[in-house]
Model the fold of this input.
Amino acid sequence: LIAKSAEIENAVNDMLGTIVSYELDSHIRGVSESEIIKVKAHYNWSMYQALLNATKRSLHLLKERVNARADSAGVGMPPFFEVDLQMNGLAVCLNPTIDEIQSAINGGAVAILKCSKMIEAWDTVTIPKNVQLILNPNLPPVMGTGSQGTFYDRVAQDKEILKVVLLLTGSIYSAKEEAEKVIRTFDPYHWLWADDVEASYQEFQETEPTLDEFERKLRDF
Done:
């Protein structure tokens, strides 16, 4: 993106140079410096719009992918995340956890936003150097005013982008309660991993169980 931005800016500068160097009849007014600046600013705005729209589309696609649901026939996109129910020795838990999934989504949204973070906005204050040399070939070109910031500074302030980012940062937490309900269905079997097997067996043996009591105990499983 950085290379493409520089490539487009150079192309605009070359276009302005071609326009300024074109010979006009003496009665036709030449291109003014303010008009040159306006043309450069127009293409700078177009570059910003391109980055803004690409960022919006990427964030919306991420949002749609996260919120994808199967239709009544069970047809839909494959899951965005695969989550397993695992026993960690103390309890049944999700792997990855809801917090880890949400963190991954947040990281994806931030990564999309930061795509424009290193792309410097064009200098729309100073006339391009190649144009200056054409207009005033006997004078050294005026140096630019330096960086105008980055396109990210403007993209990140867009209200629609901020709205989608806020929706994404809480998109998975809405499923946290449902996930906890599934985990709670295993609570009746908590004793299987919480109780000491040897101690429980020894306690049962001490009751000198009959064959029928052994059978009843097995049915508990």
Observations:
- The chain has a mean pLDDT of 82.
- The longest helix spans residues 33-66.
- The longest strand covers residues 84-87.
